[in-house]
């Protein structure tokens, strides 16, 4: 039997393996090794904080980014630094709570600055036509800020949504109000008793009233029909005679009063009747956010 030659392939058409000369490397292997080394180096720099990837929010404008760098990094995503925050129960009938230091001093001043050039005499809603009308019931001045109009407003609205568990899209635009000495808001409901005003967003279910300034005397928010009275509150001795006629909250810059116009069973709460006592000394600035059962289209 003839022996096989080791110098030839065993089968026709099969090439022998290619052998690279000793001391030389494939160009593909060299490129892969270099890429791997660069990747490892970048990961090490990122981990050590020496190198960072630029990230930009496409929603905000360049001007907003310049302002972001000038604002201190605080517990809020808004403006300035807030004091210690906690919630205090004011009443269970109606459900009313104070969120202390909900806004920073800088945010309060920002809202007042935005609103001041556009203040007009406040009106009330006509339950028949749904249109605004003048009334002696409400003697303040005010204006509305478009929902989501800038970074600060969006941050405040997100904070409201996080606190109330009501989506920001269910809220009306912020209303800024100014009460001078003698000005007031007679007791009223925030919910509607007509179909016209509930076409957009359904019924108002809750209100967040943010105090943008301190008031030297008067200007309390009062719930005249609440179960209980202000005598058990620590600020009772500081209340005006109007404030002592029910459960009342004394305005304090940065605090926010949350109260519900609807009960947990979705029925309207007549105990949510509330008003603003006359300002006796000083000025009262506030901002209101009304929230609906459904999305409120602006």
Automatic annotation (TrEMBL):
Q: Where is it predominantly found?
A: endoplasmic reticulum
- Which stretches make up the Fe2OG dioxygenase domain? 170-293
Which SMART domains does its entry note? P4Hc
Q: Which PROSITE patterns match?
A: FE2OG_OXY
Cofactor dependence is on: L-ascorbate
The EC number on file is 1.14.11.2
Record-linked InterPro entries:
Oxoglu/Fe-dep_dioxygenase_dom, P4HA-like, Pro_4_hyd_alph, Pro_4_hyd_alph_FE2OG_OXY
Which residues does the annotated region (Disordered) include? 61-80
> What is this enzyme's class at the first EC digit?
oxidoreductase
- From the UniProt record, list the reaction(s) this protein catalyses: L-prolyl-[collagen] + 2-oxoglutarate + O2 = trans-4-hydroxy-L-prolyl-[collagen] + succinate + CO2
Cellular component terms per the entry's GO annotation = endoplasmic reticulum membrane
Say if the entry is tagged with keyword tRNA processing: no
For this chain, one GO molecular function annotation is: L-ascorbic acid binding
Q: Which domain of life is it from?
A: Eukaryota
Q: What Pfam families does the annotation carry?
A: 2OG-FeII_Oxy_3 (PF13640)
UniProt keyword annotations, A-Z: Dioxygenase, Glycoprotein, Iron, Membrane, Metal-binding, Oxidoreductase, Signal-anchor, Transmembrane, Transmembrane helix
Cellular localization per UniProt:
Endoplasmic reticulum membrane
Keyword hit for Oxidoreductase: yes
**Topology within the bilayer:** Single-pass type II membrane protein
Record's family?
A: Belongs to the P4HA family.
Output this protein's name: procollagen-proline 4-dioxygenase
Species, as recorded: Ananas comosus (Pineapple)
State the taxonomy lineage.
Eukaryota, Viridiplantae, Streptophyta, Embryophyta, Tracheophyta
Chain's gene name? LOC109727630
